[in-house]
Amino acid sequence: MKFPFTLLFLLLFSLTVSSQTYRELSEKAIDYIEEDSLAQAEDFLVQAMKLEPSNPHNALLFSNLGLVQRRLGRYDDALQSYTYALNIAPNAVPILLDRAALFMEKGMTDRAYQDYCEVLDADKVNKEALLMRAYIYVIRRDYKAAHMDYDRLLELDPQSYSGRLGLATLEQKEGKFREALELINKLLVEEPEDATLYVARADVEREMEHLELALVDLDEAIRLSPQMADAYLLRGDIYLVQKKKVLARADFEKALSLGVPRADLYEKLQQCK
Fold first, then answer.
1. With CB atoms 3.0 to 4.6 Å apart as the test, which of 36, 44, 167, 214 could cross-link to 29 if both were Cys?
2. Which residue ranges make up each domain of the chain?
């Protein structure tokens, strides 16, 4: 699954700041962010904070600095900037969400979990935090807790795509295949061109040993989204079970061409010989 980062625009006209230069530097940094001139944006943000290191609005500047650093691929620096921002504004929900999303991207789910819990302490109906904490509970195999968060999310937003798909995945993991299929089928009625849903349904059908149905769904997913590596991987797995090694290898090779690391497929490619 992909994790969202919020650009915290500085509405500096409404802020009381003591220095025109601080304001100008901050505004120019935002202009550079919008232009994707990230190195320049970083420089102006740093200059502004050096000029007024005690300005309480530096929480916003540090948050935007974290955004810039993340987009530059400097994740550790970004985490540090988000943490500095939270030292100034400990209960800033948007910043907590941004840091949590970056923790998730780095595979640091325990740290992300802490941030999502803090968000929900401050905002008990935050849908993003409920969704992501439920996902973490699924990873931890704490299915009861995951159900509670998904149920709460769907009470708040019954039409939540991510919430319903996440719940379907949870039902599948609990072996409740028919319940999972029911959720996915309802989503497909609403989104009949969504390749992700066909892959999700195919995975349930595979576990139910309805392999031919799964292959039909995967063919449709690939027709809709020819660059979806997950569809080729799952279809390759099914072909391997069916002893169709040539077809399986072709799908695994296609997945490699779409960016799946060869090390991840080494054993499966060996089985195709």
1. 44
2. 1-89
